[in-house]
Amino acid sequence: MNPSFAGKDNGSNHEIHSALKTSEEIPWCKSLLDFLKEMAENNHLEEKWNNFLKSDKIFNKFASNIILAFDNNYNVQELKDISFREKRRSSEQLDELIKKCIQSLLESSKDSDRKKLQCFGYQLTRHRGETTMKALNLSTQKQYFLRKEWNDVRLMIGDELFCHIYKNYLIFERTSEGSLVQFAGKNIFEFLGVSKYQAAMDKSNLKVSKCCKYNIKNKDDHYINNINDVMWNNMKSRTRIFYCTQYNRNTQFFKKHLLMKDHNTLSAVDRAEKLFQDIFRFNRIRKDLKTNVVNILTHMVEKIKKFRFSYYLSKSCPLPENWVERKKVILSHLNDDRQAKAKYYEELFSYTIENKCVTQFLNEFFYHTLPKDFMTGKNRKSFQSKIKKYVGLNKHELIHKNLLLGKLDIKSIKWLGFKTSKKNYHYFDKENRFVLWRILRWIFEDVVVSLIRCFFYVTEQQKSYSETYYYRKNIWDIVMKYSIADLNRETLEEVPKEDMVKWKNELRFAPGKLRLIPKKTTFRPIMTFNKKIVDPEGKTSKMTTNTKLSYSHLMLKTLKNRMFKDPFGFAVFNYDDVMRKYEEFVLKWRQVDRPKLYFVTMDIEKCYDSVDREKLSQFLGTTQLLSPNFQIIKVQILKRNNNIVIDSQNFKKKKMRDYFRKKWQKIALEGDQYPSLFNVLENDQNELNAKKTLLVENQKRDPYKKKALLDPVIKICRHNYIEFNRKYYKQTKGIPQGLCVSSILSSFYYASLEENALGYLRKESMDANDPNITLLMRLTDDYLLITTKENNAILFIEKLINVSRQNKFKFNMKKLQTNFPLDPSKLNKYGMASVEDQNIAHDYIDWIGISIDMSTLALMPNINLRRKGILCTLNMNMQTKKASMWLKRKLKSFLMNNITRYFRKTITNREFSNKTLNKLYIAGAYKYMQCCIEYKDHFKTNTEIHPQLDKIICAIIYSVTRAFFKYLVCNIKDSIYDREHSRDFSIATLRHFIEIFSLKKNHFSGVVKILVAKEQKMLEEKDNACMTAIEN
């Protein structure tokens, strides 16, 4: 038998994971079924086993899901020799045979054999000269092979070949979701590692220019030692500009920044030298260039003392007219309740500073502090446009290195000038680019960020996603006073710092931080728990409050699964849960001949703040849904590297680490049982969320008691402290919203209340003459009820209102929505003043961003189709090295994220699917066009690529929309669309992109022409096909 190598023949199994097919380290991989069939074809199996292989469907299914592979160190000749020998089968049990195999691996002189997955959990011990194998803990790898199917394999191929495969091959089993779990062989993740020798070789092969990057202050600052250090080549995140509340002149920029620090004790030149060291970390750049850089910094240090911050801030970003009088009026209502202050919140939140005003202030600062020859002419305009872009970026966007240096004519910058021969020109040019990059990076990351933090409060707004808003600190100070006055009345109590320190030392938690998100007439308080925990001795650990609760969070995820599975309450936790339940209900409704339905949607007001902490603690302590024992399992998961797309046409095998990376993930398992990783993944409710990937478990499972994991959760809920504007507060009501466990705790609390009040809704009847079926779901604080009985709907509203009054929480009655009128005599009981307050839905009802057709139950996502609403969700982050791949990946994400369920026959129809497609195309085309503007702008000066950009943009549209249609047809179960819709689908797609790109025809005239020509060609083909069909 001659195993076929991966490049030539991978067998009939086309679902082998790409990590095995694309990696140089794995020359051969094949399913066990193909392996056995090849043995049968070569007459290496006995006749009865040939018949067994042909007839036993259960075994065939098992064997087709087992994947065998070996690495480059494997000797194929050994397999050939064993295959031709007589099949010998011993009388010993499979368990004993596997034990002998493991012991022989442990006794091997090769370190690689002793590290194989089969050996995990075992070690050799010597006693009185005898060597025995001892199990340190239960091995799931060994238990996995003690199955009837593997015993059949052993009987089929003989003990010797079975042991050979078990000891030398990489063995995987494929799960129902297409993932591969490894149980034997060298850990696949070892191929991702780099040996010290290889790392040294890689560094020695680096080409470092003579006048750049080898300039060092000491050996640790050598560029080769820091080539992967973010500090050297990447920009930092802009998140530092957000949520800075301090605006006192004695803090931040004016006290801590090196430009201002020690101005009384150090001369301007000395401070410039310190700045130079801080920016570059090394001394050895050419002498005249260093002198020029130090002179620039000295000029900044001297000029910044004379810069009139208040004048230029007032000039560029003025406060509202009559601000002093308005401030007095607004503060006079400080102690009113939140509802009475709604108009003042709305007024304060309207005082945003436009991006161009912030940009103008920053440009004024640099105009007066930087030397005039720092940037001149077009370079100055380009520098100012970069500041404008930086200010206008969305929350998670960055300016990358190439974009920061782009459009700058470096040769025309005088202070970077040099004289040299043509031979050495590129060395000096590289050095100039590196020095300019470091200075610009310092200006943006350090100076610009510090100035923004000092004078502005930067935040996002409710329902504006990642779009950034700037407020003057004077305005935001009033917002903070208003909000803390409301919070002190509702959920917080100010405490002295000593109380917080005592709590921190006793419970070993760090206080949370509070920030405010503006809403239209109020605010949303957000607590974050990312501060490092400090022990009583003052040492800062790497652990935060959320990381300390991570294992408790894993335990509570099992509670979430049990609530959904048993069922307990009516909580759903994500869109998959929602769609799964919704689809089940739609199928039942169709079975009983589509009777009339009654809809109700409700919303809990201040969901987290309304949780009764004592009742929650009691529910958690007494619930039978939590097992008394848990095990934490740690799993290695293979992930594809970002920006890597394997080209099937020009495929070339590479090192596995070039395509893939490793990620650790943990989950909690209930009870004392010890299921294999494969069995864990086959559970529908598992939390690994690992689809079509590779997984390995090779660490001991840690046991925990329920009480040990639950105690810290209860403590932090009962005693939570937060920091806000340098003051400390204790939470007096509800649970903290920003904790990793808060979502599950809140859902469990309301589920416990629902279980007693709404159990009657579980009684169902499928009688076609008098059907009684109900769907009730609550996602966090949003309820949706669909029922065939009007009485059920009315009783549901009444019971929930009674439950809320008994447990001291409220429903937002303005959001109560039904498709039937309520009894006018009960409106007062529901908290409504008159009949006009009723919100009666017609045709469609909206819930959590989904529109439901009340007559057909078809679904459609609510997508904001206004240009501003679409673009505020766009995070550009253009990657300049593989810009075309970035553009393609962006368009894919715009069209293909979280849309699967909207195109299934079981829960929607063609009309709604087409509407959904139209919305996706409009939103996707707007975002794609914005990315294309950035893409074309980047290559504007590239004479080779620029003429081809329109063709590339169009080619990406063709490629992605074809892939999108293929995904809709092939990957979605019960899809609305078939292959026959391909041409109509493509024409409709092109029309949407033509319409959107025509809005900027001056910028994309070439793109529009190409797309229109393509549309015309497809229409002609369609007409010809119709004519041919008529003639036939």
Q: Give the overall average pLDDT.
A: 84
CATH architecture of the largest domain, please? Orthogonal Bundle
Give me the CATH fold name of the largest domain. Answer: Topoisomerase I, Chain A, domain 4
Enumerate how many helices there are, as a single number: 39
Largest beta sheet, briefly?
8 strands, mixed
Number of structurally distinct domains: 5
Low-confidence stretches: 1-14, 194-219, 221-231
Top CATH class of the largest domain: Mainly Alpha
Shape: globular
Helix percent reads 40-55%
What is the C-alpha radius of gyration, as a whole number of Å?
Answer: 33 Å
Compute the separation of the termini in Å. Answer: 53 Å
Number of strands: 29
Protein name: Telomerase reverse transcriptase
Subcellular location: Nucleus; Chromosome, Telomere
EC number: 2.7.7.49
Organism: Euplotes crassus
Task: Give the tags.
1032 residues, alpha+beta, Topoisomerase I, Chain A, domain 4, 5 domains, 8-stranded mixed beta sheet, 7-stranded mixed beta sheet, 39 helices, 29 strands, 46% helix, globular, disordered N terminus
Description:
Strand 12 (532-534) and strand 13 (540-544) form a beta hairpin. This protein is 46% helix and 14% strand. Helix 37 (949-971) packs across helix 38 (982-997) and helix 38 (982-997) packs antiparallel against helix 39 (1001-1031). The strands form seven sheets. Strands 1, 2, 5, 6, 16, 17, 18 and 19 form an eight-stranded mixed beta sheet that branches. Strands 14, 15, 22, 23, 24, 25 and 26 form a seven-stranded mixed beta sheet that branches. A five-stranded mixed beta sheet has the order 9-21-20-10-11. It folds into five domains: 16-192, no CATH class; 237-473, Orthogonal Bundle (Topoisomerase I, Chain A, domain 4); 496-514 and 528-566 and 615-645 and 655-733, no CATH class; 569-612 and 738-857, Alpha-Beta Plaits; 864-1031, Tetracycline Repressor, domain 2 (Orthogonal Bundle). It contains 39 helices and 29 strands. It has 1032 residues and is an alpha+beta fold.
